[in-house]
Amino acid sequence: MEQKIPQSINAEQAVLGSVFFDQGSLKTILDKLQDHDFYLPNHQAIYQAMKSLFQENIFIDFTTLSDRLENMNMLAKAGGIEYISGIIDAVPSTANLLNYINIVKDKSVLRQIQDTCRGIIEKSYSVENAPEFIDDVERDIFSITKEKRTSDFKGVGEIAKLLVDKIAEQAQIGGEVTGLDTKYYQLNKFTLGLQPSDLIIIAARPSMGKTAFALNIALNVAKNPTRPHIAFFSLEMGVDQLVMRLLSCQSQVDNFRIRQGNLNSQEWEKIHYAVDALSELNLHFDDSGTVKVTDMRSKCRKLKQEGKLDLIVIDYLQLLSGSVHNQANRVQEVSEISRVLKETARELKVPVIALSQLSRNVENRKEKEPIMADLRESGSIEQDADIIMFLYREDYYDAETARKNLVDIILAKNRSGTIGKFELLFNRNMSTFSNRSTSAYEEEVVDSEQSRGGY
Prior knowledge:
Blueprint: H1 9-21, H2 25-32, H3 41-55, H4 62-71, H5 80-88, H6 97-124, H7 130-146, H8 156-173, H9 185-191, E1 199-204, H10 210-222, E2 230-234, H11 239-251, H12 255-260, H13 265-279, E3 283-286, H14 293-305, E4 311-315, H15 330-348, E5 352-357, H16 378-384, E6 387-392, H17 394-397, E7 406-414, E8 420-427, E9 432-435, H18 440-450
Helix pairs in contact: 1-6, 2-6, 3-4, 6-7, 7-14, 10-11, 11-13, 14-15, 15-16
């Protein structure tokens, strides 16, 4: 059976012919279709001439189009005057224009996929780096399907109108959160919530509570009314350990007692309630040992295509490896990892939280509070990240301090807002980070006082 190249001549004719009946329809067509979306060369020629007339604000009819094609030496390529006349008669109804456009676009996407697959097969014969090749293949296919029925460029007016609609919607809802709500009042004040396409680095020395903080953020986001989907990649701890912490956090039962199984009837009841509550959340863990950053991105692409991805959490960045492991030049490898993480955030339009270790430099100086230079292999991480947060506990270094169980969250970089710091309460026994107060107003007062510290 002969294979037919995906195409719909009738739909292409209907799209082009509709312009003669409704000049305004060309604006819609230009936003959704490009020259190569038309299969026939004569339709491509006609479309190019129409765009040329439109850009010069010349009314498009049989005469102006024929004249423009002749001036462009493309009248013969377009099929001649008779073919143009036939297109005008080939429009069933302008009311179905969007359906015709979608048919043309869908056929074009199928042709692009076929062309891409042929190229993939050809390149596969001479592949030297298989993981990099596989990642390129996924990116190429995803870019085709992701852009289906969309245009490459949007006018500033269109974008501005969409933004105004979002602002109006936010004003109606009230509050200060436009992204994913972390439930931490002051963090939301700095970030307006976790924003799509942002790469967020949470960095600290070991035992400061990085993983617990990331789990708390993931749990808080998962509890949002829209039930966002969170992918949590654990490269350090097993999923049993992580869920044990979540059970402790959700039930408010001591983590150590849970691990011992030494629970009274009331605590068992709390645990069962916690299990039921966690079961309703779209919080998913991957502890398969995924190490390559490209493998991680591949899994996230699949989730995004299934409509099951709103936030990515990675614990932690230094345990990832690049497409080619480069022990000799770890800084270069980390540069690739941070770049891929940022590309993933932008490509999938979700926030990516990556935990990061700090160098031992902190331990070698009197002032222990972390700074940007303490980031291990810091150059690329500092450049690619949109937000960088440090965790600092004074009681870790000074057992006699009056600031016990307080964690400073230091925003050292915030591309879309201000930098500063605030405090959260940390209950290690229950792996819980909580606001110092239950009032957003009280949090604002605390924040105002502490922001004078010059961070």
